[in-house]
Automatic annotation (TrEMBL):
It comes from the Eukaryota. Forms chloride channels. The chain crosses the membrane at residues 36-54, 75-94, 200-219, 231-252. InterPro entries: Bestrophin, Bestrophin-like. PANTHER family: BESTROPHIN (PTHR10736), BESTROPHIN HOMOLOG (PTHR10736:SF21). It is found in: Cell membrane; Membrane. Keywords: Cell membrane, Chloride, Chloride channel, Ion channel, Ion transport, Membrane, Transmembrane, Transmembrane helix, Transport. GO terms for cellular component: chloride channel complex; plasma membrane. The keyword Transport applies. This is Bestrophin homolog. One of its GO terms (molecular function) is chloride channel activity.
């Protein structure tokens, strides 16, 4: 199985990066060090021959050849070839990983649908899940070298308890959708092993990478003749930049090689032996020992109390990121006393496409009146001087506040359930407070006016206001 570094990457600190880079198991260093040492040895041998074994005339010819190779090294499209190849290989790897097959759902469905604590019911449940594991083992024997070595013959499967000496059909189990899905996944990974990528594709990519760095052995030599066109001003002896390029490109190629056949014996290949053991153990336990073993139905600790989540002392000091919109913090300026609502000027341009362009020009002036009695959790925190929500106040029940074109919002309304249908609107709980309700539904275009011509709109948000609207309708 691949080396699990998830725990090491729990944070994004700088020390974590260095900790990850210097891991050896499954690392890029382990993948490329053999080829890198071979390439570096060839580079060093050629450098010694160029510096000490060749005369001046021979050095000049070598320098021209190195310049020729260096100028035409870009003819090999390394980035394009490696990028496209790795993308194809990764997609195949993801598909095969998604279809490895976990038997948990089959075991749960079998335990639920086939009842009975007698020997017959127990035998049926155990045989269904064991046959599924046996079919998975038969597939893995043909595509995974490690499983093949573990079970070289069918008799070894019988000795391990995965299979019986005689396979019998379980016709009624084949009708289960979960078993069909399980079988489809096994068939898919079998097909991926049966029809791999055309061999010319990996041949082309691997040959391109190795040819590229074979040419680099000549083209990346430090030129010591001052009169040469490609004279190297700083003679470093050791090819630092070429070494980095080798690690990056060859490491990129090694990633594709690791993912090309995940059913091998490398460090990063699938551990199918463990998967078989796990499926056999989990499935037999689920349908036998854990059958009909359900948890007790008892009242929870918050049965007659307010829900009060607890944190460890170490995590209680962290800020809570509430599930609220970012625009919820927007507030009207203190000097805003009224808002004028006017139609968009582009409406008249669309009238030329309408047969009867009769449009009423409506203008509304909405006055803003603060309502201190309608307080939100944010205003309550400001008033109490608390910077963080206390855990006891997050889930407390409070009077419902509604948004809608009504005469007035009843602040002290009776608390409703999380989903309540009333007056043709669906009331849903706000995520900031489960009992702070927002009334949703199709709203009228204009608020219904009271006899005095003033309509009230109660808004629950960062700041509560009452909008008193005076509408003026004009018809051309």
């Amino acid at each position: 199985m691949p080396y699990n570094y998830q725990y090491d990457m729990a944070t994004s600190k700088a020390t974590v990066v260095f900790k990850l880079l210097f891991r050896w198991r499954g690392s890029v260093w382990r993948a490329v060090y053999v080829e890198y040492l071979i390439w570096l040895s060839a580079y060093a041998i050629l450098s010694c021959v160029y510096r000490f074994a060749l005369n001046t005339e021979q050095q000049g010819k070598f320098e021209k050849f190195a310049e020729f190779c260096d100028k035409r090294l870009s003819y090999i499209p390394m980035n394009f070839m490696l990028g496209f190849f790795v993308t194809v290989v990764v997609n195949r790897w993801v598909t095969q990983f998604a279809n490895l097959g976990m038997i948990d759902n089959i075991a749960l469905f079998t335990s639920q649908l086939i009842k009975g604590n007698d020997d017959r019911g127990k035998n049926l449940r155990r045989n269904i899940v064991r046959y599924c594991v046996a079919s998975q083992c038969l597939v893995f024997r043909d595509i995974h070298l490690g499983v093949r070595r573990r079970f070289p013959t069918l008799e070894t499967m019988v000795a391990a308890g995965v299979n019986l000496r005689r396979l019998t059909a379980v016709s009624y189990a084949c009708s289960s959708q979960e078993i069909r899905s399980f079988r489809t996944g096994l068939s898919l990974i079998w097909t991926y092993d049966w029809v791999p990528l055309p061999v010319m594709y990996p041949q082309l990519v691997f040959m391109a990478v190795h040819t590229y760095f074979f040419v680099c052995v000549f083209s990346r030599q430090f030129i010591i003749t001052p009169t040469a066109a490609n004279y190297t001003v700083v003679d470093l002896y050791f090819p630092i930049m070429s070494s980095l390029e080798f690690i990056f490109y060859v490491g990129w190629m090694k990633v594709a090689m690791e993912l090309l056949n995940p059913f091998g014996e490398d460090d990063d290949d699938f551990d199918c032996n463990f998967l078989l053991d796990r499926n056999l153990t989990i499935s037999l336990t689920a349908v036998d020992e854990a059958f009909d073993d359900i948890p007790d139905v008892k009242p929870d600790i918050f049965w007659d109390d307010t829900v009060s989540p607890l944190y460890s002392q170490e995590t209680a000091g962290r800020a809570v990121n509430f599930y609220v919109g970012s625009a919820n913090r927007a507030e009207l300026s203190e000097d805003v006393t009224e808002i004028k609502m006017v139609p968009h000027p582009t409406n008249e341009k669309f009238d030329q496409y309408i047969k009867k362009p009769v449009r009423r020009r409506r203008t509304s002036i909405v006055s803003v009146v603060k309502t201190p009695q309608c307080e939100t959790p944010a205003s309550e925190r400001k008033r109490s001087g608390s910077h963080l929500l206390h855990p006891l106040t997050i889930f407390q029940r409070k009077p419902a506040t509604t948004i809608g074109m009504e005469e007035a919002a009843r602040v002290n309304a009776k608390p409703r359930s999380s989903t309540d249908v009333g007056d043709g609107h669906l009331r849903t709980a706000s995520y900031l407070n489960p009992t702070f309700f927002i009334e949703t539904g199709e709203l009228d275009r204009t608020p219904p006016l009271e006899p005095n011509g003033i309509g009230h709109l109660h808004v629950g948000g960062a700041k509560d206001h009452i909008f008193r609207s005076k509408s003026f309708n004009h018809t051309e």
